[in-house]
Amino acid sequence: MKSGKIKIIIIAVKVLLSVMIGALVLYNIDSVKLENIVKNADISFIILACALLPLNLYLQFAKWKYLVDRTSAVRVPAIQIWESVILGISFGFITPGRVGELGKLIAIEKTDRYKLLGMSILEKLYDTFPVIFFGIISALFLPELFFTDSALMRINMLFFAALLLFSAYYIAVHPGILRTLLNYFRHKIFKKSTKFSKFADSLHGFKKNNASVLLLFSILLFLVYTTQFVFLILAFGEISILSAFLGVWLSILLKTFLPFSIGDIGIREGTAAYIFSIFSFPAEAAISAAFLLFVINILIPSVAGIFTVPFIKNFISENGN
Q: What phi, psi does 209 have (nearest 5°)?
């Protein structure tokens, strides 16, 4: 009886997620010039962007598995990790700022939730490091965005950028800084909270070599999905590859630190249109590329994963593998 209720709840969640995903897409569909996608796209570049999706998903899986293995006292099955990743994508899509990605924790069994939460937040933090690195580098090539032609302003910009890059890299490869910060909060603010103590313990044993591995995963994943974005930009217009990468990196930097929206819809397209207008690239083409990136990397895995991952999991359990 209990298992029957659980199955009903799982089905209800699947249906609810599907309805919400569909409703959000339909609500925002008018802001995208879909005729531009259909009529003017270079299909070969779109195929290349789609071909990178499996690598994108695998890197997300490998990165999350690396963190889960460091947290769990028992071996977590690979299919459970995959289910967690897909749930994270699905929940992230329907929540502002993609904070719903933390919902992927519910798919991991027999693991301390608070330590797992710590790893999940750490993962999101490390995902911002390559955004900062490559975003700042791209901004250096486009100083007219923020400054005049003043030589002094350009020197100040270079100095400030170098300081930001060094600080971000130093923090990324020295997790002891984060442990010190968490210990301060634990001893000064959350003295009586056992839950926060478990959360803070998630970083114990997380050394420089672990930070380097996590940073490498984050950089590789960033380069994969930005390359997908570049392919889609090239599919809708003519622009040099260097300019395409610079525009993509900078638009992602701006999108990351702008106010939240549901699934980043609107912000992703708006920042792309603004940045690529600097290169005299058509706004509609940039919007179409950004929207199609969302369809490939978020919408398709969300809709497909909601149903296929549980099915595969049940198939494996029934066959005893």
A: -65, -35
Question: Tens digit of pLDDT for each residue in 170-216?
Answer: 888 887 777 777 777 776 676 666 667 766 766 777 788 888 999 99
pLDDT tens-place string over residues 231-275: 999 998 889 999 999 999 998 988 877 655 555 566 777 788 888
Residue type (1 letter), 29 = I
And the tokens for 16?
């609810």
Decide: residue 8, CB within 10 A, 0-12 exposed, 13-18 middle, 19+ buried.
Answer: exposed
Contacts of 276 (CB under 8 A, 6+ apart): 233, 239, 247, 251, 283, 285, 286
Tokens of 179: 């442990």
- pTM given for the model: 0.78
Cα three-residue angle 45-48-50, rounded to 5 degrees: 110
Q: What share of the chain is helix, strand, coil (3-state, %, to 5)?
A: 80, 0, 20
User: In Å, how far are 86, 90, 105, 258, 271 from 95, measured between CA atoms?
Assistant: 15, 9, 15, 15, 19
